[in-house]
Amino acid sequence: MQLAGTQLTNTSALAGNDIATFPDFPAEIRAPRGTLAGVSGFQVHFASTDIYTPGESVDAMVAMNPAALKTNVADLKPGGVLIVNSDAFDKKSLEQAGYATNPLEDESLEGFQLFQVAMTDLTRRAVDGLDLSQKEADRCRNFFAMGLAFWMYGRSLDPTLRFIESKFKKLPAIAEANRRALTAGRNYGETTDAFVSSYRVEKAKLPAGKYRNMTGNQALAWGLMTAAKLSQKDLFLGSYPITPASDILHELSRYKNFGVRTFQAEDEIAAVCSAIGAAYSGHMALTTSSGPGIALKGEAMGLAVMLELPLLIVDVQRGGPSTGLPTKTEQADLLQVMFGRNGECPMPVIAARSPADCFDVGIEAWRIAARFMTPVMILSDGYLANGSEPWRIVNFKELEPIPIKHPEGPVDGKPFLAYERDELLARPWAIPGTPGLMHRVGGLEKADGTGNVSYDPKNHQHMINTRAQKVKNVAKVIGDQEVMGEASGDLLVLSWGGPYGSCRTAVAKLQSQGHKVSHAHLRWLNPFPANLGEILRNFKKVLIPELNMGQLSMLIRNEFMIDTVSLNKVQGKPFHVTEIIEKAKTLLP
Q1: How far apart are CA 552 and CA 549, in angstroms?
Q2: In the chain, how long is the greatest CA-to-CA distance?
Q3: CA-to-CA distance for 548 and 332, rounded, in angstroms?
Q4: CA–CA dist 5, 55 (Å, integer)
Q5: Could you give phi then psi for residue 76, rounded to 5 degrees?
Q6: Which residues pair with 83 in a beta bridge?
Q7: 3-class DSSP assignment, residue 212
Q8: E strand or H helix at 573, and its extent?
Q9: Cα separation of 65 and 92, whole Å?
């Protein structure tokens, strides 16, 4: 299903549609076939207009077996198109999915446009004569379903035929079987009278430029590589594999020709410590993980704060706690990255809002880390990391450079002070081995200026205050918070991270209905933009939708003493637009 969804996505992108996707796959590597735990799904939203989410409830669904139907049918709109592989609805499969009766026969699906297609039988007929085993033949069913979906929405088969030729060129029988199954699915839709409608989605009017389809993990990797080039640094990644962050390691490991060095460490602690070493030696340093790994990195992150070194830490959030829901999305690590270290240990925190936005966030995070000499936390989530959308390829020459100046030696014969600060409280980034710049590093508290070990109580208070103020100073350079809509009104929807698209779409619909509703989406969560408090006080009520139990709401209440309304969801799925609209309407006059 992931393959089928990816091909439908790429084909729609080539057709000029705006797209957004939501892959949804099981955590078990080999879950028992036909069980609810083993269902793999892929949701695609394509349109002729700008879209910001993978969709509301879906207009059409293809269910390959009873378990897939039971897991996803709640997301299908009333009256929506439901295509099922009727061959899969045998007694054993129904029992595995927990059905007491066959839903194709008991009228429980009468609210949908139900189309029963014998996909297994039709696929076996299509590949007959290729000397395939029955198992190999049945694995072509996804291409049959793909061909049928391509016919329904006027998609060309050519991109997928090219994919088959490239993917299976060493397996000519399998390639031919997949070609036949794909064509058979298209022909079935075209020749049978079972389907009364097909649909055509025109090209979207996107800004002029060259586009490619990008997942959030890909975009973040590319953004980080771009940031390295903008600052004339080599990029070092120290990482330990973990879902859903591993693809950043996979992507960056492909680009050694751009000066990228990737190190797969033996554990999370080694990964972050190797990155700290790279930062100390003057490189752009990065470590990636998800919530459980961020917990293990905590002590070393505190060391990076104490050393005041530029370091990027990426947290691709997933459902928790513990192993939780490793392949499902959540944004419940906010308080962890804000406070999950011993002592007073503040760090700037930035969050991406969409797959394509991950590119810009990677650049902005490094710009702040290098300017302020501080670790910066980048928050993504499983929905953004694995989802995709069109990304407009940028012109590198149009991007603003990230200037970094290392001290070259003592000035005017004065001794070098490793913790002497500029107007924003950033210390100098001295490269080890530079003559005259010898200084002490370590996890013990620093004396102001020299960086020598200090146990003086007043100095400790001073350094705690200084490091906290340095993070607050980031607000001076990140710019003011923007608002979509009027600057005041009845309701402000305040969001961060992945819910951006659902919130933006919901607010646009409410505005079209005449409601005085606006939307503000936070990129920086520590520090908050300087004008955020003023914006919040201009609205009668503030609604904060989060895929957690109210973490940003807690921070906003604490910082601004404003009574917020939370909309919380922790189901491993992103918000539906209607969920936000319905909650917002309960708060409107």
Answers
A1: 9
A2: 90
A3: 5
A4: 14
A5: -85, 130
A6: 62, 115
A7: strand
A8: none
A9: 11
DSSP for 474-500? GGGTS-PPP-BS-SSEEEEEEEESTTH
Question: What token pair was written down for 297?
Answer: 């990195």
Place of tokens 């929506």: 80
How many residues would you count in the chain?
589
Instruction: Count Cα neighbours of 367 within 13 Å in the Cβ-side half-sphere.
Output: 17
Q: Residue 164 to residues 3, 153, 161, 411, 447: CA-CA distances in angstroms? A: 11, 20, 5, 64, 64
The whole-angstrom separation of Cα 274 and Cα 309 is: 13
> What stretches of 201-333 show up as alpha helix (H) in DSSP?
216-230, 246-252, 268-280, 291-296, 298-307
> What is the full per-residue pLDDT of the chain (589 aa) written as tens digits?
899 999 999 999 888 999 999 998 888 877 787 899 889 999 999 999 888 987 678 999 999 999 999 999 999 999 999 999 999 999 999 999 999 999 999 999 999 999 999 999 999 999 999 999 999 999 999 999 999 999 999 999 999 999 999 999 999 999 999 999 999 999 999 998 888 688 889 998 888 889 999 999 999 999 999 999 999 999 999 999 999 999 999 999 999 999 999 999 999 999 999 999 999 999 999 999 999 999 999 999 999 999 999 999 999 999 999 999 999 999 999 999 999 999 999 999 999 999 999 999 999 999 999 999 999 999 999 999 999 999 999 999 999 999 999 999 998 889 999 999 999 999 999 999 999 999 988 999 999 999 999 999 999 999 999 999 999 999 999 999 999 999 999 999 999 999 999 999 999 999 999 999 999 999 999 999 999 999 999 999 999 999 999 999 999 999 999 999 999 999 999 999 999 999 999 999 9
Contacts 24+ apart (CB under 8 A), 6-9: 6/42, 7/146, 7/159, 7/160, 7/163, 8/42, 8/44, 8/146, 8/149, 8/150, 8/155, 9/44, 9/46, 9/213, 9/388
Q: Are 300 and 272 in contact (CB under 8 A)?
A: yes
Q: Look up residue 447 and give its two tokens.
A: 């004396």
300-303: long-range pairs with CB below 8 Å, 24+: 300/269, 300/272, 300/273, 300/276, 301/272, 301/341, 301/345, 301/347, 301/375, 302/341, 302/342, 302/343, 302/345, 302/443, 303/276, 303/443
Between the CA of residue 110 and those of 149, 164, 221, 409, what are the distances in Å? 21, 37, 46, 79
Cis peptide before 527 (omega within 30 of 0): yes
Quickly list DSSP for 236-256: EEEE---TTTHHHHHHHTT-G
DSSP state of 74: G
Give the helix, strand, coil percentages of the chain, each rounded to 5: 40, 20, 40
Cβ atoms of 173 and 130 closer than 8 Å: yes
376-395: string of b/e by CB count within 10 Å (b at 16+)? bbbbbbbbbbbbbbbbeebe
The number of beta carbons lying within 10 Å of the beta carbon of residue 499 is 26
CB burial of 39-58 (b: ≥16 within 10 Å; e: otherwise) equals bbbbbbbbeeeebbbbbbeb
Q: Which amino acid is at 491?
A: L
User: DSSP class of residue 428?
Assistant: P
